Amino acid sequence: MKARKMLIFLVLLIASVSVMAGCGSDKKEGTENAALKTIRILYPGEETDRMSEFLKNEFAEKMAADLGLKVEVVFVPWAQYWEQKDIMLAANEPIDLYWDGLPDLSTIVNKKQAMALDDLIEKYGQDMLKVLPKEQLQGATIDGKVYGIPSAYAPSSAMYQLVAVRQDILEAVGMTDIKTADDLKEFATKAKAKFPEMKGPADIIFKPLTRYFGDEQYNWIASEDLVVFGEDSKKAYSYYESEAFQKVAKFNREMYKAGLYTEDLTIKYNERDSRMQTGLYLWVEGSVGKEMEIINALKANAPNAKVKTYLLAEDKPRYITATGGEVLGIPVNAPNPEGAMKFINWIYKSKENYLFALYGVEGKDYEIVDGRIKKLTSNEFFYEWMFRNQNYQMFGPDVSQESIDKYKSWDDKAIRSASLGFRFNNEKVKSIETALKEVTGKDLAAIRSGFVDFETGYPKAIEKLKKAGIDEYVAEVQRQLDEFLAGKK
Questions:
Q1: Is the pLDDT of residue 13 over 60?
Q2: Number of C-alpha atoms within 13 angstroms, CB side, residue 57?
Q3: Is the CA virtual torsion 252, 257, 258, 259 positive or negative?
Q4: Signal peptide position in this chain (predicted)?
Q5: What is the 3-state secondary structure (H, E, C) of 76-115?
């Protein structure tokens, strides 16, 4: 009996010690979690199951160990991203980092959506500068201060002027390449006849067509698509009043009337990339390396797909107009701007970090074979196009050496635009800009895509544009542009 009581006592003692040890472990773990500072990233797109698992496990462990950070990613579907970004930042929701397009940087700054980053870069971004040269950061400079990180450092001449084409379908209809706008129309016509299950182009590619139809090369230098810079004349022009735009609109109208464009190209314009990746569309606006960027997602739906990128009017000069198309911004009221900069710096600190963020866990999500990166699943992690860096970039096994060589030498004969680094400040014309964007969004976008008859719709839309103040707006852009160009002499 005495022995039995002793046995019971020992069992209870061991159990008690185990519970106490467990409580101590929980307390320690809770203390460690409490010590982690949080950053919240606003991010476009849909969260996949694997990305969710990655963020909660391997990535969370890495962030805690390397940076003492807990990273929360707030996903917003593409169609709602920009509207939700504006709403959330205006409401001072706790966002520490977000993505946007570099051409809109001045608008972002004027909306008080981005803080100056010079001090943060100096303190926490020195590793980043080893692979993002200061010339790259100058592309996000306004009044001598850096307001964003141009995160994609890669060949960039003729940005937004290329078209990424389903090469397998092109060859299947008896064509070999694309050189002209008429080639595109012929391709879409033949594909519709031979492959009725295909849904036509995914995009109206108005910028590549503008390159093709323009007497001089243009690049966009104000809010959205309102004003272009003429590379020869060094002048600012109202894009929608240009002869190039009129030719683009007439071409797209013919495409629509021929049944080659769907209504989605107008109504759901921003979904063009996701359309292309379904495997049911023929082309989308491209960029240097676009085929490498989309091929894995495309092959998940069309296993035999091949993509090739073409430059219309290839004989015309290629200009470098911006230091990439992407920008990472830290809001003025970010709760943890230091953590946001540490996170950006961490991605670029080493190739190991870069590959981990963009491709996941080696051996589980990807493997490297003969110097090429092979994705083992179709999962996406942090977008490659958003963080692409030519110092770390790797190519997939299906990318031809010819494409890689072309990619690496793409900027060899490029010309630096005189407008490179120009940032329009809309402070004096905000109300005019708002009125102009309403006209372009409601009237001119539909004309641009061929959805509305050009002959009847265009004169009315231009009249509205004039009443909204386009001439005053262009004059203000020109005034600032003249100051900028004079300062470079």
A1: no
A2: 8
A3: positive
A4: 1-21
A5: ECHHHHHHHHHHHHHCCCCCCEEEEEHHHHHHHHHCCCCC
Please name which of 488, 477, 445 lies closest in space to residue 270, comparing C-alpha atoms.
445
- Phi, psi angles (nearest 5°) of residue 238: -70, 115
- Residues with Cβ < 8 Å from 113, sequence gap 6 or more? 85, 86, 89, 329, 331, 332
Q: How many CB atoms lie within 10 A of CB 323?
A: 24
Q: 241 with 462: CB under 8 angstroms?
A: yes
pLDDT band at 34 (very low <50, low <70, confident <90, very high): low
Give kind and range of the element (H or E) at residue 461.
helix 454-468
Using alpha carbons only, give the angle 157, 162, 168 rounded to the nearest 5 degrees: 135
Q: What angle do CA 296, 299, 303 make, to 5 degrees?
A: 150
Helix (H) and strand (E) counts for the chain? 22, 16
Q: How far is CA 366 from CA 242, 369, 399, in A?
A: 47, 10, 16
- Neighbour-count burial for 396-411, b at 16+ CB within 10 Å, e otherwise: eeebeeebeeebbebb
Helix (H) or strand (E) holding 28: helix 2-35
Q: Give the pLDDT band (50/70/90) at residue 31.
A: very low
In whole angstroms, give the CA distance from residue 270 to residue 63: 32
φ, ψ for residue 444, nearest 5 deg: -75, -30
Residue 327 near residue 140 (C-beta atoms within 8 A): yes
Q: Find out whether 312 and 179 touch, Cβ atoms under 8 Å.
A: yes
Which contiguous run of DSSP H or E holds residue 165?
strand 162-166
Q: Please count the CA atoms within 13 angstroms of the CA of 332 that sit on its side-chain side.
A: 13
What are the tens digits of pLDDT across the range 245-275? 999 999 999 999 999 999 999 988 888 999 9
Per-residue burial over 176-191, b = 16 or more CB atoms within 10 Å of its CB, e = otherwise:
eebeebebbbebbbbb
Which residue in 184, 206, 188 sits closest to 262, CA to CA? 188
Q: How far apart are CA 226 and CA 237, in angstroms?
A: 9
Measured on CA atoms in the order 177, 181, 182, 188, is the torsion positive or negative? positive
pTM assigned to the model: 0.78
Q: How many CB atoms lie within 10 A of CB 304?
A: 9
Mean pLDDT (whole number) for 115-123: 97
